[in-house]
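Progress narrative, Year 2. Work on ABC-type glycerol-3-phosphate transport system permease component from Ammoniphilus resinae advanced from sequence curation to structure prediction during this period.
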Amino acid sequence: MNPTVEHYQSVLIESEFGTYLKNSAYVSTMTTLISMFIALLAAYTLSRMSKTPGIRAIGIGMLIAQMTPVVMLIIPLYVFMMKANLLDTYASMIITYTTFTIPVVTWMLKSFFDSIPIDMEESAFIDGCTRFGVIFRIILPISLPALVATGLYAFVHAWSEFVLGYTFISDDSLRTLTPGLSLLMGLWTVDWGRLMAASVVIVVPVAIGFVYLQKLIIEGLTAGSTKG
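Result:
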């Protein structure tokens, strides 16, 4: 058996898979950025203001909501997107992916923020720094390892999601990678060569990024928040 790149050429050049790749990159990046920004503020609030009435209840509510299976919400979400005229748009995927990503990312960041000494923040407040100044000038740089780990989770979640992307998008020009795989499977036949090549195209970039970011996470954690 002779190795060949024929199926990779077919997938990347002779099909719409390149479009799906760009769509996934855009949707995953936007989901990650929005989720990280919202989760950063939410996690800091849960960590530093947990004794404020209602704050902890909101955090627990987010966690409980995350336990709801996605398949139970497909019909309500579809009806909402249809009434909001968001079907066959990037916004439908970004909104739903962000909604399901934020609770997990928030609690991941909260556990890291809990380990940061509050004395650093109090010193900054004495020097006249505002709350947002503390978050973006002190907490953010110290939290780089946690931000990388949670950002990777958010990106991979959006990158590999299938059910919602398949439900909300019927326009082939807007499909993402995993729903796009279904087009390589017919009713009675499966193009296994192209299907396997497409699967590798999906997995390899994420795997390479994970290996690289894993090194960054380890280096950041060994440096720790004792810096500064």
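The chain has a mean pLDDT of 81. The longest helix spans residues 17-48.
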